[in-house]
């Protein structure tokens, strides 16, 4: 992308530039959009989403061909052409997201009141939905975009925009500071009684949002908005417009190259789809018997097939030499099976997934074996987790700004978000290790590592309460005759 010129210069006054040179700036915006939509990253975004949804493009385009009477290569519409889609990416991405986010993240801070303010401002849907959608976007498209805004009721809200709609204008080569963001999308409107799809182009700057429509290949101001630019915030109800002081988009990167997971396994998945489909084609062909005819007239073969299907018999002209023999081709799938098994192992290895084949891992793998099985997934999640933590720190800056605008004190306390991964363990082995360690570590540490415990603090409180109840019950017992006791 072009940077450092025109409206893309880091120190540019966007409002003045747009006012003075609107047409030129709009052309620059469209050039940026065109460059982005022609880029490899955009291509991989579309590909990643398709493979996650099970719309594997290579097998979908597969055709069978033949040569016609003029020796021209044409599509053979009658050929068996099974198209088997294997949704490896759906499983790989879902495993990754669930492993990282199945348990709600923990916010750690010395000020409990501040934690409550953060949770109240972000809302529970952020932890239950937004984070998951962000991780899916980053995994499938290389980068996920969280947008921060204040709704009409004055509430702090977040949205996840599809990454293929977002054209970031970075001010540094490391892609850490946003200079502006362009968003392109289609919206349906009714023009009179006619429904029309409108291409929208929104430019997000430090001052606000410039809303455009793409009409006739050129940008025109979107008349649905009275302000140009539209401000992000207002100070108090009906107050003066203001801004966040930065671009209200937060990036979550899948890796430092901003490429999706599909890039590293696409060719393997395509080959798996192709070979499994060819295998299916072969089995369909093999089910059809080949008839060898001896002493049979030159009757049309279509009529012959009809007689066999209807009568299960045919007439032979020469009773002595004639005859009919059905040949069924032999099937040897050993080579196919070996290739499929190796392809699957390669997809899991290079896709950094988890092998769920019990024949390979056994029914009760040890803790060491489980750590080895999850090592690839751990490495893949480490990169995404680092980006999520960076994004959360950026998000807290917006939260603090919002709290200040609403008149709430913002304590200067360091905050950390901890992702509680859904780690698989051998429960029997883990319980034995916990029991064997109680003499040398604290009860709290031992309880926190028990596989059945979700909240160590709550568990310790429950244990203490049960002990008190038992002591109270024993204390209230009174002795009676015949060495017996009763309540």
UniProtKB/TrEMBL annotation:
Residues 456-469 have a biased composition (Acidic residues). Residues 456-487 are annotated as: Disordered. This is Phage portal protein. It comes from Neobittarella massiliensis. The lineage of its organism: Bacteria, Bacillati, Bacillota, Clostridia, Eubacteriales.
